[in-house]
Design goal:
The complex is a heterodimer of chains A (107) and B (126). With 107 residues, chain A is mainly beta. Chain A is 0% helix and 50% strand. Chain B is built from no helices and 11 strands. Chain B is mainly beta and 126 residues long.
Chain lengths: 107, 126
Amino acid sequence: DIQMTQSPSSLSASVGDRVTITCRASQDISNYLVWFQHKPGKAPKSLIYDAFSLQTGVPSKFSGSRSGTDFTLTISSLQPEDFATYYCQQYKSYPLTFGGGTKVEIK
Amino acid sequence: EVQLVESGGGLVQPGGSLRLSCEASGFTLSDHYMDWVRQAPGKGLEWVGRIRNKANSYTTEYAASVKGRFTISRDDSKNSLYLQMNSLNNEDTAVYFCARGTCRRSTNCYYYIDYWGQGTLVTVSS
């Protein structure tokens, strides 16, 4: 199975901050990585697919990048609606696997 | 508008069975793969399994933790996805989400989740 190691597990940030979340895959997954945002009691929301591509309707403050097996989600300027838990997931091979999540909290 | 609405959750005793449903609307279900994902209380997301579309013979994949106990099926004519859960144990207590799988390429497709339902809670307890 491909392990997805996500860091940090939580972070505190202020409105306007630039935030970076990282996922490391245990083996090559090419660009087959998606990022989700999840708020309690809500349906998770897909933000970025194929490591870089913005899902329709997602604001451009979200961006994704890749360096080898390391993937990064960046929020350029954190807004109140961005406080949530973020997950990565690889879809290169089965079983599909998630990172452990990053909870973004208000400082 | 894409909508996925789960139902069928509830309280079940260990060893029991439950069938979840997911009603899809706003898109052509037969074009897409469909997944089930769960979240145990206080934990992260866990992929449960997937059913491919008609073009890929409705074949299925499962997580090791549920293989042999859970079965995913679909009825495209009813715009519905199902999760039959047997031999339930306490570790299966979770919110269960259905999710749509999409591929934007015309060849060499790897399907990713692009839409989710809000989930239905399954509690396994005596």
